[in-house]
Amino acid sequence: MAFELKFRKDITALQEEALTSNELKRTLGPWNLVALGIGAIIGAGLFSLTGIAAAEHAGPAVSLSFIVAAVSCAFAGLCYAEFASMIPVAGSAYTYAYATMGELFAWIIGWDLVLEYAVGASTVAISWSAYFIKFLEYFQIYLPAWMTASPWQQVTMANGDVVTGIVNVPAMFIVFAVSTLLIIGIQESARANGVIVFLKLAVVVIFIGLGFMYINADNFNPLIPANTGDFGHFGVSGILKAAGVVFFAFIGFDAVSTAAQEAKNPQRDMPIGILGSLAICTLLYVLFSYVMVGMVPYTSFKGAAAPVAVAIAITPYTWLKPAINLAIIAGYSSVILVMLLGQSRVFYSMSKDGLLPKIFSDTHKKFRTPWKSNILFCLLVSLFAGIAPISLVGEMTSVGTLFAFIVVCLAVLILRKKDPQRVRPFKTPWVPFVPLAGIVTCGILLISLFLDPVHGYQHMLRFGGWLVVGMIIYWGYSVRNSIIRKQHSA
Fold first, then answer.
1. Residue-wise pLDDT tens digits, 407-459
2. Total number of domains constituting the chain
3. How far is CA 92 from CA 95, 385, 427, in A?
């Protein structure tokens, strides 16, 4: 292992590469990066997890849970901001690990990010399909069951018949559409994401504004319901448990760092994009959850498939239901876009380093995007989304994300020790407290996933199996083609 640690990237060389490279087009400003972060963070989790967290764990104090979760994310976000401003290249956590912990660790985190983004995009595409189908039904448009579900998924028809799907066509369609947009160009993708973000933010703000008029103060009494005697069921422990539930509504801001090589002024704009999107989403999450539990008693959300609809039902604004559905569709669309963007940029960096075939770092002559990588993952992700049951992919995105957060926090500690004098355009404050807090909080959440009595062993098997496949590729291909190893040999 000590031998492997010598294969590290030189940060000065990485910074020079970022300044001189023109393969990817630098077109993203601070608003584009903030919008990318918001696009990745605000998905359907806001509309679904809020009700679950309130009804089962925190009660009216669910807003406090969002604040606790945001603080946990902020630890990792501050560490990401330091690296993204200092090493503005496309590889995100993969490149940060390469510069601090060596090639082997970089490969592990890069392979992990492939899992996070690819599986995450598939999961979201399947959910996008479900909400898209429901949205069409508002206009009396009904798609046949065979084209709206996977072969392992049963669909209950309006007459009570249960049928099995063949392929989830809408899920495949959205992956193809987003991939095409990414191939055409990062600027065009950013513009489309900006429109989508504006749409879903408008719906969220309208719900908050209208909902404030229907808040009943009695619904906040008591603010923190008494604990039932079990950890996590109300009381202070319930707030903490709910924080773990809603934490996953914040996941996605790390994908902003994969666009560092396409930012106009990454030293200034990357911290704005990462921390700005986190701050905006936190404010909206807190206000949204406060209004939601203020409109109806938190017990009303127990077992509700669409908790926001429960709150809307007490108002005359029935048009908000399809509007919320549209916001969820828009939210999922931007999440898929940012995940596929991040995935292709990580593969691009790994290919540039020789750890993957050169085809994945080939850029289009006109569009200047890694189009071959986009096409590959368009095919893989769409196929997975079209035929895989959502239960298979579920929380694996969270496993990959938390692992990446821990590595980035650890990398900040290592580099501060090894190279304390290096210029850092943005410095993580209160080191070592912030990185250590990030490692501890993310580590606890990661362990809680593995210890889940229902799905924990499945997470461990899938994550372990994925790493085994990755190590076979690394020792079979990457070691022999690694550019940094060839330089050491020369």
1. 899 999 999 999 999 989 999 999 999 999 999 988 887 787 677 666 667 77
2. 1
3. 6, 25, 17
Judge contact between 312 and 24, C-beta under 8 A: no
Dist CA 367 CA 349 (whole Å): 18
Rounded Cα distance between 198 and 210, Å, is 18
Q: Which domain holds residue 381?
A: 4-489
CA distance 218 to 247: 27
Cβ neighbours around 212 below 10 Å, total: 13
Burial class (CB in 10 A: 0-12, 13-18, 19+), 190: buried
Q: What is the pTM of this model?
A: 0.84
Distance CA 78, CA 254 (A): 11
| Tokens found for residue 75 | 């630890």
Say which CATH number the domain at 42 has: 1.20.1740.10
Triad 275, 279, 264: Cα angle to 5°: 35
Q: Which two tokens stand for residue 247?
A: 């934490």
For residues 309 and 384, what is the distance between their CA atoms, to the nearest angstrom?
30
